[in-house]
Amino acid sequence: MLNTHRPTRRGALKAAAGITALTAVGGAGLLAAAAPAHAVGDGFGLRVVERGEGDPRMWYYRFATAQIGWNPGVNVLLPDGYHTSGRRYPVLYLFHGGGLDQDFITFDRMGIREWTAGKPLIVVMPDGGHAGWYSNPVNSLVGPRNWEAFHIDQLVPWIDANFRTYAEYDGRAVSGFSMGGFGALKYAAKYFGHFASVSSHSGPASLRRDFGLVAHWANVSSAAVELGGGSVYGMPLWDEARVSADNPVERVDSYRNKRVFLVAGTSPDPVNWFDTVNETQVLAGQREFRERLGAAGIPHEWHEPAGGHFVRPDLFVRDLDGIVARLRKA
């Protein structure tokens, strides 16, 4: 089912397998415009320790940062003609899902180059941890894993300083799959002035429903594969303020004046039980979120295609076209 919902005020994880598939359930004000540097360099608490700029479109960096206990990577996909046009471009921050085989290269493997061919858009695809949940955890027993601080406080201003971007609200979008879709919804609400468009492809939108299933899974999965026994929200008791701050259904007013794009599958996977659990919970949470958006009179586009918990290239391309249409033109 494909729907565009524009209500009146009265109207109303196949990216990984086994336990890592279930891990996938669930990457401030305006920044001043910065003149692009001639050579990509350090700054904002980041030090470039590895780079690859030989590909005309896909540039790669690895950083040393005090926010993460290892050196996270990022792929920066440049639009056709970037090196000769002299123009500034809008930016999409695109977040991967959870799982031991998921990282900043995930969308390159899937075909992001082909999906963005000819589109005037820079796409930034950073590491977000195997189960980082795009968060600064309550506690970590393996060193810092502050993915939220790395992305928002360091990476966004670094990108604006080193590439020809529009360093403003109408110059940025955020999107993601599964855990990354949650991260996109979370960042768009918590950092309202950063992103004019937000998209969640099979990403959970409700942390507390069904006795807090998604919040509990964020804790369990992060403890198992990310934080060495630590947790995102605290165990056995949650930091309730953090849960509420991150929970899209509790932040509905923060999606006003944004383009909102949501995807969740409707059909269970007859082979993969984990996919079935993932997408069933995602679908229920997105429907709850959509109901609240509708009741608040906030326009949003939603899609419920057949199938389970996996990336749908046709809807990603549709989303990309909507992002380009919403953001400031190159």
TrEMBL record:
Catalytic activity: an acyl-CoA + a 1,2-diacyl-sn-glycerol = a triacyl-sn-glycerol + CoA; 2 alpha,alpha'-trehalose 6-mycolate = alpha,alpha'-trehalose 6,6'-bismycolate + alpha,alpha-trehalose
Enzyme class label: transferase
Enzyme Commission number(s) from the entry: 2.3.1.122, 2.3.1.20
Signal peptide start-end: 1-39
Coiled coil: none
InterPro entries on file: AB_hydrolase_fold, Esterase-like, Mycobacterial_A85_antigen, TAT_signal
Keywords from the UniProt entry: Acyltransferase, Signal, Transferase
Sequence intervals crossing the membrane: none
Family, similarity comment: Belongs to the mycobacterial A85 antigen family.
Protein name (record): Acyl-CoA:diacylglycerol acyltransferase
